[in-house]
Design goal:
- This protein is α+β, with helices and mostly antiparallel strands.
- 38% of the residues lie in helices and 22% in strands.
- It is built from 15 helices and 16 strands.
- It has helices at residues 17-33, 47-54, 59-64, 83-92, 137-154, 172-184, 192-200, 211-218, 229-244, 289-292, 307-316, 336-351, 365-375, 385-390, 411-419, and strands at 37-38, 44-46, 66-69, 75-78, 102-111, 123-132, 159-165, 249-251, 263-271, 279-285, 300-306, 329-333, 356-358, 379-383, 392-397, 402-407.
- The strands form three sheets. Strands 1-5-6-11-10-9-7-8 form an eight-stranded mixed sheet. The protein has a five-stranded mixed sheet with strand order 13-12-14-15-16, with helices on both faces. Strands 2-4-3 form a three-stranded antiparallel sheet.
- Helix 1 packs antiparallel against helix 5 and helix 5 packs parallel to helix 9 (229-244).
- Bound molecules: histidyl-adenosine monophosphate (HAM).
- Residues 81-83, 112, 114, 119-121, 124, 126, 128, 130, 258-259, 279-284, 286, 302-306, 308-309 line the site of histidyl-adenosine monophosphate.
């Protein structure tokens, strides 16, 4: 039987792990530096949670969710994103009773039935960062700073930040009316998708990638001109914080995002050169979502960043991650008696915290040395019958193949010293 990994999924092989480790370690460090705590939520939730929060007429809910009936006939969905699950946890676990705002992050897989291409998968990994319980625009800035610093610490430089405000329930309906009437005069010129969205998800017309639609949306009325005083002031303050920090950003009036829960600030980080899927990160405010999933009305903001796209960008920019740790020592042996001594020695070293590999399998010394090379160990410890009899071990420095016989009782100190 020949099985294949499902379309849009991939294996992260050992040789790819250095990239993943680098991204995840930097992310954790930055999140902790900013005082964010880790949360983990289930990989699947009740389907209705995502349908309501992400929005019935979004691409995600209409075409991309992995929804199934479990064995009790309950409709479940593999999470297409984290924000809804975190808001559900906030409401259900009464996290609003804790000192606010709550600063959280999580890292894990998400699932969307999309057409796979470079940087777009059906199982992909997100770094997700959320602040729940604050409406201060300085928090919007802080969340953007977290993203910035993660990329900066990873070593990525060619990024641009796009920001916009999508208004709130007070001012958005008026803007949507203006936009609808404006687009009504252009119905003959827009693509089929946009015509369909004109009735359901009007804002998405602004970010259609088709060239004719782009030209039209460039001339569309801008939301900035319709923002209420509260949203306008919020956006102005965010921009002045960004200016204070000298962050390069662009106000992009066509940035609307593909999820319905956003209010006020939205932002994305774009990387050149990773193809059509150029958003490395996307996020924004969602002041109505926690109330919608059953919690108290609570303002919140966050972002998510696809790890695959971060790694693609690293490769594009030629950023090499640090090597993954190698064992310090490789234990080799010749003969049965020596094997017993080698098993004990290897365990002793590991217990003392010295990374130790071995091949076992009773292979030739040559084969064992080849494997020692492959593991990247700094030393090989070789035991034969003579060594067992004399209470010694042969210590070989792999870098220059020099070797010396040392007392068994001195092995630990010798390899620890050599490694430091
Ligand atoms: P999103 O824009 O749908 O937002 O996804 C965020 C990021 O996840 C994207 O910018 C991209 O890097 C990555 N991504 C999304 N879909 C795929 C895919 N099929 N393959 C690879 N990478 C992908 C959200 O998910 C929101 N929950 C973000 C957020 C958090 N808003 C507020 N808090």
């Amino acid at each position: 039987m020949n099985y294949k990994a499902p379309r849009g999924t991939y294996d992260i092989l050992p040789e790819d792990q250095a990239y993943w480790r680098h991204v995840i370690e930097k992310t954790r460090r930055v999140c902790e530096l900013y005082g964010y705590e880790q949360i983990d939520v289930p990989v699947f939730e009740q389907a209705g949670l995502f349908e309501r929060s992400v929005g019935e007429s979004t691409d995600i809910v209409e075409k991309e969710m992995y929804t199934f009936l479990d064995r009790s006939d309950e409709r479940m969905t593999l999470r297409p994103e984290f924000t809804a699950g975190i808001c559900r946890a906030y409401a259900e676990r009464k996290l609003h009773g804790r000192p606010q705002p709550l600063r959280l992050f999580t890292i894990g897989p998400a699932f969307r039935y999309e057409r796979p291409q470079a940087g777009r998968y059906r199982q992909f990994y997100q770094i997700d960062v959320e602040v729940l319980g604050s409406q201060d625009p300085a928090v919007d800035l802080e969340v953007m700073q977290v993203a910035w610093q993660i990329y900066e610490d990873i070593g990525i430089s060619g990024l641009s930040f796009q920001v916009n405000s999508t208004g709130c329930p007070v001012c958005r309906p008026g803007y949507l009316d203006t936009l609808r009437s404006w687009y009504a005069q252009h119905l003959g010129e827009i693509c089929g998708d946009c015509t369909r969205r004109h009735g359901q998800n009007l804002l998405r017309l602004l970010d259609c990638k088709n060239e004719p639609c782009r030209t039209i949306s460039e001339g569309a009325p801008r939301i900035q001109d319709s923002l209420c005083e509260e949203c306008g002031g919020h956006f102005e303050r965010l921009r002045s914080y960004l200016d204070d920090l000298d962050r390069p950003y662009e106000v992009n009036h066509r940035l609307v995002r593909g999820l319905d829960y956003y209010t006020k600030t939205v932002f994305e980080v774009w990387a050149a050169g990773i193809g059509a899927q150029n958003a490395v990160c996307g996020g924004g405010r969602y002041d109505g979502l926690i109330g919608m999933v059953g919690g108290p009305e609570t303002p919140a903001i966050g972002f998510a960043s696809g790890i695959e796209r971060i790694i693609l960008t690293m490769k594009q920019e030629g950023i090499e991650p640090p090597d993954t740790p190698k064992p310090s020592v490789f234990v080799a042996y010749i003969g049965d008696e020596a094997k017993e001594a080698a098993v004990v020695l290897a365990q002793e070293l590991r217990t003392a915290g010295v990374g130790t590999a071995a091949l076992w399998e009773d292979r030739s010394l040559k084969a064992q040395m080849k494997q020692a090379d492959r593991t990247g160990a700094a030393f090989a410890l070789i035991i034969g019958e003579d060594e067992v009899r004399n209470g010694v071990v042969m210590l070989r420095r792999m870098a220059d193949s020099t070797q010396a016989s040392i007392r068994r009782s001195e092995v630990l100190d010798a390899v620890k010293e050599g490694a430091s």
